[in-house]
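Notebook, student rotation project (T.W.).
Task set for the rotation: take a protein with a known small-molecule partner, predict the structure of the complex, and write up what can be learned from the model alone. Partner molecule chosen: fe (ii) ion. Sequence and SMILES entered below by T.W., checked by me.
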Amino acid sequence: MNTVFFDAKVSDGVRRQGLYDGQLYVHSSVPSSLALCEFARQMSEAAFAPLDPRQAQHHLPVERFANILAELKPKFIHHPRSKQLIQQVLTEMGCDLAKTHFDVPRLRTSTHDNYLTSGISYAFHPHRDTWYSAPFCQINWWLPIYEIQSDNVMAFHPRYWTQPVKNGSHDYNYQEWNRTSRQVAAQQIKSDTRRQPRPEEPIELEPQIRVVCPVGGILLFSAAQMHSTVPNTSGYTRFSIDFRSIHSVDALARRGAPNIDSDCTGTCMGDYLRGTDLAHLPDEVIRMYDTPPHMSVASEAQV
Ligand SMILES: [Fe+2]
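Predicted structure of the complex:
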C-alpha cells in the first residue's frame, strides 16, 4: 500500500481493485452518510441521557456504562433504518446494489484511558479481519459519528500489507465463535477471556497511518489490512460506525486481496445481505468459502 485517495472520481470497480491492492480510500460525507451518523448519534444520546455519550464514562461506573452499550449496540445494529441508510450510502458511493452485499452496521466505542477495553467496547490489538473468517474481497467502511482526533481513531500498519505475521488464526472458526463467544461480550468487563486471533510475534506499530476525517466522512479499506485501535488519550469516548461489503461477482471469481498469513476456517459470507432486497448470497457461494475447522485452504495447500 502506498496511497490514500481522497474523493477519488473512479468507478466502484476501480476503487475495489485499488482496495484489494492495499490502498486506502477516503470520501467526504454524502447526505446518507451524514444521516446514518445522525441516526447513531440520536440513539446514543437517548441511551446515555442526560449525559453526553462522549463524556459519560467519566460519570458512570464501568458496569453501568457496559450495560448501556449492551442495549444500545444491538438496537442500532438491527434497526431497519440502519440498513436503509446503508443501502443509500452504497448507492451514493456508486455501488451497484444488485451486486453489492453488506453486513449490518456495528456501532463501536473506544473509551478514554483504558476505562473499558474489553467485551462490548473491545480495544482491538493489531489484526486483519481476514484472521476472523472475512473473505479477501471484503471491504470495510468506517465512519466517525462525532468529531475525531488523531488520538482516538484506528491505525493502519502498512508494512504488514506484504509482510506475513505469525498469528493465531488457525484456531479461529467463525461459526464456532458465534456459537460460543459473541453473546458473552457484555460480560467481559475487567478483561476479555475470549480467544481471538492475535499476532504471535512482536509487531512494529510504526510506521502507522491514522485517518482523521469529519463526521460522516467515509474511510474504506480491505479486510486484509493490518489495523488496530489507537490508545485513546483524547479525554472522550470515540463513537464510530463500521460495516462491510462484498461484490458478488468478485466473490464468485475469488477476486480480492492476497492471502499472506490467514489460516482461519468457517466464513462470514452467510451474513451479507444484498443491497436491493436484503437476500443472502446463494448457498453455493457461501459453501465456496466455508472451510471446516482445521481444513483451511492454507493447510490443504501444504498437503
Ligand atoms: Fe478489524
